[in-house]
Records
---
Amino acid sequence: MLSDRLPPHIEPNAVSRALAALAARRVEIADLTESNPTRVGLVYPPDLLAPLAEAAGLRYDPCPLGLLSARTAVAADQRRRGADVDPAHVVLTASTSEAYSWLFKLLCNPGDAVLVPQPSYPLFEHLTALEGIRAHPYALEYHGLWSIDVASMAGAPPNTRALLLVTPNNPTGSYVTPAALAEITDLCRRRSWALVVDEVFADYPLEAADPPTDIAARAGVLAFSLAGLSKSVGLPQLKLGWIIAGGPPAVRDAALQGLELVADTFLSVGTPVQLAAPRLLAEGAAVRAAIHERVRRNLSLLRAAAGRNPACDLLRTEGGWSAVIRVPSTRREEQLVIDLLEQERILVHPGYFFDFAREAYVVVSLLPAPHVFGDAVDRLLRFVSR
Ligand SMILES: Cc1ncc(COP(=O)(O)O)c(C=O)c1O
């Protein structure tokens, strides 16, 4: 009765079952998978959401691509990183996830493929399947630094329509290098692929010197940069994301026309958040700074803990909100995660959740409160080193 777009198995996995059993007994755990910035004890300016109550929001005047005032604010915000964006090239969405779904509707026919990084954001599997398209992986490899295996893209199926780039990537924290970006752009030009660049974590560099950002605005091929309030100012609940379209003017403008039709079909972005966008982007800078400080602090706690546990290898984290630790491969990752949960009351993501090519890796969020994080990573690294 249900479509093939849904995964065949949607029952909870063994980790979720172990977690549910602990929750039923009200056992407290240190959750190192927490990626929701509103749940980690950050202090938000108390009147940050006041602009949502503007009386102008009582009037509904739908604009498919978004209110010009909000698109202008998003364009102006890109100047923080030196990008010159025309508000006419900004498309508002309810989230970055929705931006993906709109771009897949714009670019792909059912059955077409898009290239996705591996390891990367696990939601790509569902975002593609729900649009009736296929995700074809290309590899990221670690040799003291993550690099994109551009050669692995050569085997892309003939019906590939777009290449997805996540920079910095989740969870590897790696940015695309200028050299890899030039190669990728050239491949997109030769193969007529659109370039879709997820830059949701671009505001959080950690160990990166001047990485490429705002890629669509500077691209020589049809390209789209994606981001949103959820990461840039730590407000995922407001549901405002955006696409910035770039590339040769004729193809970019045709894409914007297509996106306008998709957007007009759903009109999913609420008016109050659009009216509030200029102030949210300006005043949210304080939240962004607090998140940045948090992830920096936790990364230094993690580095110190890794220094005390040489059997574990903390991989280089150039940016973003997560860190990857290679751990001794003494048991399957799933068992390791369950043992950690049941014996130490610590929850981490296993590497396989992000499709790492090999075991054993664990991924931790750098967002939790430092007193929770510092103690938990110490215990985590000692436990896996035993
Ligand atoms: C790489 C990446 N892209 C997109 C998203 C989704 O962002 P949004 O909340 O705007 O849908 C996430 C969320 O964690 C992410 O990690």
---
Amino acid sequence: MKIQCGTCGAEQTVLNPVAVSVQCPYCDAISLLVDKEWTRTGKKSRLSQGFSRLYRGAFCRIEGVEYQIVGRVRYSFGRGFWDEWFSLTEMGKGVWITEDDHTFAVQQRVEATDITKQQGKVSLHDEVSVEGRTYRITEMGKAVCLGLEGELPKEILPDEQYDYADGTSLDGDYALGIEYDDEPPTVFIGRWIHPREITIL
Ligand SMILES: [Zn+2]
């Protein structure tokens, strides 16, 4: 799909069929898909590249699956930040790859009714069961969007914030992420991946 930037007029090709947010690669302006129309937000975003091995446009292979990175959101948690890379598989499926302190997890959205049906939020050190695995909540805080780039499947703009809770499985192998950005909250799980398990193609 080709779209025209409402701010600078540049044309860009959108790869992600479910994108609702795109950043213009020329002027950094962010547009959102509202009622099937690409609409200017008046916001711009530019991210420093940082020290990640991943970058927008990169192709990489993780556990035998090939991904193309098409976008990124960076969140602050107060003492630092983490990146969420939005990528597409060869089949066109959208997947978030979270990168926190050079550790990665390919996230999979899950129903997690134990969490979403619960009254209120989880608490620090709670143990919750998701898809047959037990996780302990290790961190809770407020995520503030520091910036974004590329094509994204969700509407998020710089400075927007939401509460989150993170957990780790009792064996330490899996990550749990709860985003209190909606009702019910959005829950993701993913196996922790060492950087050497990622091949840049
Ligand atoms: Zn533009």
---
Amino acid sequence: MRSAFELTLVNGPDGDPALVADLVGAGRAVLCDLGTLAGLSPRKLLRVGDVLLSHAHLDHFCGFEHLLRVVLGRARTVRLVGPEGTIERLEHRLASYSWNLAGSYREGVIFSVVEVLESGGRRRASLALADRFRCGQIETYAVDSDHVLDEPRLSIRAVPLDHEIPCLAFALAEPKHVQIWRNRLDAMGLGTGPWLRSLKDAVLADAPDVTSIVARWHTPHGSVERILPLGLLRRKVLEVVPGQRVVYVTDCAWTRRNVERILDLARGADTLVIEAPFLDADRAQARSRRHLTAREAGTLGRWAAVRRVIPFHFSPRYAGRYDLLEEEVRAAFEGRLAPAEPPRDP
Ligand SMILES: [Zn+2]
């Protein structure tokens, strides 16, 4: 029961990049990249509170309108993290539509945008439907870590890579995971329900043992409620274990600095979702487009000692032969294929 994130590549490994990381049981999701999103239900999109944009190439950003239409008239803030220039890009994108009816909405979305700068600093601004998406004041500030989110249930790190332009890689982590044992609930005569989410929140917030937890669940004979001290539940039904980490890497060149930064994010991670657009035999193409090869993707997974690698962003040139890319990644990851030569750039 230690699966913190449920991962879905919206367009499969060969379509536009868009990865949904659903936080199991938390009712929220993170969306990495905004390739076409037509395959994503509004119900799922409405769970997305954080959007992580690696860079603004068309195939990574063209799905924005799909998200916009679903969240437009909702009283919610969507956080969007992207590389330098994301605020202006979004402002221009939104300014290309007429918003004369904005006042007729009772509620409206706010995009809270954070740019991760190559210098290590940040820029941030908000764009709200209520203001017809005119950009508020842009604030520039310094930070001393690469975290763009640091909450008890979710932390996100963002690191710029070189794709000729800056392209962000992300690490999503559940800092601590509260594991609740169903059999121990049964032994105490407790049923499951949304109250378990409150229980997890209380544990993650380090609430005192005397805190009352209202356990409420439904049975065929009606609903049942019991009030229990948090300390008792802490001892009897749950365990706090290290959480999972998922790393998302796309569109980057095989350079020494990129490799260092990727390994720093991915070392020991549970899952590395990584681009593998070209076969090693077509390395020259990969080099000229500032992309990785499948062998390099698998090598990074091996060097970082991750638990599993999910390759994606396959080039359409291999249509019908995608299994070759998958096999090259797997062979390099498992050590059946010699690792890629370390980058030789100065
Ligand atoms: Zn791309």
---
Amino acid sequence: MDERRWDDFERRMRDLRSLRAAAALLSWDQETCLPRKASDARGRQAAALEAVIHERLCSPALADLIAELEAETLSAERAAQVRLLAREVRRANRLSAAWVRALAEAQSAGLLAWREARAQRSFAPFAPRLRALVALRREQAAALADGGEAYDALLAIYEPGARLAALRPLFGRIVPELRKLSDAIAETGKSRPNAFGGRFDLDKQWDLSLALVRAMGFDLEASRLDRSAHPFSTGLDPTDVRLTNRFREDDPRPAIFGALHECGHGLYEQGFGAAIAGTCAGEAASFGLHESQSRLWENLVGRSRPFWDAFFPELSSRFPDALAGWDATRFHAAVNEVRPSPIRVEADEVTYNLHIALRLEVEAELVGGDLDVADLPGAWSDATRRLLGFTPRNDAEGVLQDIHWAWGELGYFPTYTIGNLYAASILAAAERALPGLWEAVGRGELLPLREWLRAKIHAPGHLRDAEETVRAATGEGLTEAPFLDYLWQKYGALYGVGR
Ligand SMILES: [Zn+2]
């Protein structure tokens, strides 16, 4: 092979990655520091940048290079880069520049209308914007589906290889188990709120967030921490990974679990192998696998008893007045309360995936054309009653609670459940590989786990698809058994209920 052809490919690929990072920086800025009046201008900037990326992806010279390289025998790293960029190029070529611009504009308008509608607690002002977004996504799905299920074409953007035909039976198996466990817990009458009495100084919570992510081995010289209304993380490069967090003066839990969750994402972004960083393979293998890393740290480690044996003394030394009378046992119980909530982001580990089952059901019908946007609030309420056992009091607590549809993200929600299932499988494999894992966590030593995750999950990036990476690390693909075992074991013991 003519090495100059590879160099040409690599330059184009790295430029595309850099343009994507610039687009991600624009949206990070929008969520953290953009002046209120600048949202229209930002919408135009984002649309212009998306148009440039689309144009470059659709360049005939790039298509020729890819065709040439696909015929060559390449190293695993190079083959993955060609395969992944080829996938992006194929997707881009099936959509017009006008569609790309229309989507970017509909996203800005959707976000604005959603914020307004949510403030009014009424779906109606958002409905026309959502209708436009659904139409654009259905157009995209039709262009990408190759005659298959439209919803799968959207799902594949976030979770390559996932299928509605596999997810429906998967939820069919986990939903009854989750209902059974949450009903058993409710019957014990032990699920009382564990309120805090004192004030938790915000600066000290900021310092605590930094101490926690440092203990996880997060490189603070290759990152930033900022405040935002909803915590999120953005990886621009392994040397520039940005986390945000939120803080409440009356409750330290949002800041603690926000930091653990976002840092779990951040460690993945910092951990891509040096040989693939900055290339198409130097990215998460899927959104579900990304979410597995955040959930693993937030829930499986961060809500475990050994973790609080190690970190409660530090917590109470930072907030001695607010936590007077508290100990590790009580705090551990307080971070593992099971109480069905109408709000997904406030849900506990047991009921969380019921919220996702609801969203999958509703959005698959929306994309498939079986449900009209106008009927969405009703369908949402029905599904909430059926799955969670109550009716949302208003649209803000129901159909308007998530930002995803406002941004036109349809097919994203299942990645949360996939992440929860992968997290349990991955942690079970880590326990087998590291026999002293929980003793180390109990001493506050989190680095052995991070090192194992880095080697097995982070460093390979997207060299393989997510399920293959998980199978290589754990011996099994996407499966619910380790997750359900984990829930029954932990909450069975906490609440005294049996399977
Ligand atoms: Zn997350």
